[in-house]
Specification:
120 residues, alpha+beta, four-stranded mixed beta sheet, 6 helices, 4 strands
């Protein structure tokens, strides 16, 4: 199963969903604001991605900047970071692609194509 956490008003999310549709990929689309991932789902996604947890934060978002998280994150434990990410979907970098064994925050065609096993 392929899941994509996205935000309807996000142009990058719209681009990613259009790209998936053009490739014929069927994905369950979750509204990151109302159906945001849990701490355990985020932990699993981070493990699947092999990326540091800080890559899962939406660093360009108003909430991130308003909370001054760039200053606070380095002192936070992984558990605290996961709890914070799970508390509000707008803190999560979007779109977030999650498959059975891979995950990737943000949209980059090359990475998504590799994760989904798509070749042109």
């Amino acid at each position: 199963m392929i899941e994509v956490y996205s935000y309807a008003r996000c142009s990058t999310c719209q681009k990613a969903l259009n790209w998936l549709a053009a490739k014929g990929v069927d994905a369950a689309v979750r509204d990151i604001k109302t159906e945001h991932p849990t701490a355990e789902q985020l932990r699993a996604a981070a493990e699947k991605s092999g990326l540091p947890l800080k890559r899962f934060f939406n660093t360009s978002g108003q909430l991130y900047r308003g909370m001054e998280l760039s200053k606070k994150l380095p002192a936070m434990s992984e558990g605290e970071q996961l709890a914070l990410l799970a508390s509000d979907g707008m803190l999560v970098k979007r779109p977030l692609l999650v498959t059975e064994d891979k995950a990737f925050p943000g949209f980059r065609e090359a990475e998504w194509a590799e994760i989904l096993g798509l070749t042109d």
